[in-house]
Amino acid sequence: MPAPWYEGHISRIEKVTAATWRFWVAMPEGQCLDFRAGQFVTMDLPIHERKVKRWRSYSIASPPHQNRELEFCIVRLEGGAASQYFFEEVEVGTPIRFRGPSGKFVLPEPVDRDLVFICTGTGVAPFRSMLTDLHHHRKAHRRIHLIFGTRYAEGILYRDEFEQLLRELPDFRYSVALSREPDLQPETFPFPVRRGYVHPWYLQEYASPRPDIDFYLCGWRNMIDEALDHLSVRLGYEKTQIHFELYG
Fold first, then answer.
1. Edge-to-edge order in the sheet of strand 213-220
2. Residues 150-187: pLDDT tens digits?
3. Are the C-beta atoms of 223 and 120 separated by less than 8 Å?
4. Which residues pair with 12 in a beta bridge?
5. For the whole prediction, is pTM greater than 0.85?
6. How far apart are CA 236 and CA 238, in angstroms?
7. Domains of the chain and any CATH numbers
């Protein structure tokens, strides 16, 4: 049975960087969305006559207990019809029609394996939902390593929250790769930072395949394809240990 459609509206907007904004969508009055951390919704945007060209899917960045107002972290793509709509037309109060939740990019219950989250840019959204959910409900888990990549330090999304989780969430690690930061000073960060891409982090730290670890990948196709090749072909992990959510 397909997920139902909801008639929500934009309740808040936060401009994180010039190209990445946070949008909150309020549920219709008296309603909430029952979802699992890592799932997404499909929005029906007024950007085309054909509905298949109007639909865009976005991971829910907020945790499941915040189910009356959903957060989405959206990046602007040059020439993208949805990007133009969100960044040039949407304002607080704009109606948003969407359906969901959808997707199987969720954590096992219970979390009985070590987890490595690998993402770039707004691909961090489902992991922010997962980690906040684990922390909020004090769910039992094993070691978790979030490896995040972006171009510049200003683009480290949810930095304050992940720094707080380093202090409060047991067995949580956070590593950041900055591909274009011109004056990188790793000693100024309270977590490991290096210049480059996300791949060297896991290639070095998880070079010996283990049966008790799962990898979760989220980002654009190029990053996902490269990570899949590294993990399954080069390092020899089983395909059942690798889960991914593809953007674009």
1. 193-195, 172-178, 144-150, 114-120, 213-220, 242-247
2. 999 999 999 999 999 999 999 999 999 999 999 899 99
3. yes
4. 24
5. yes
6. 6
7. 5-102 (2.40.30.10), 114-247 (3.40.50.80)
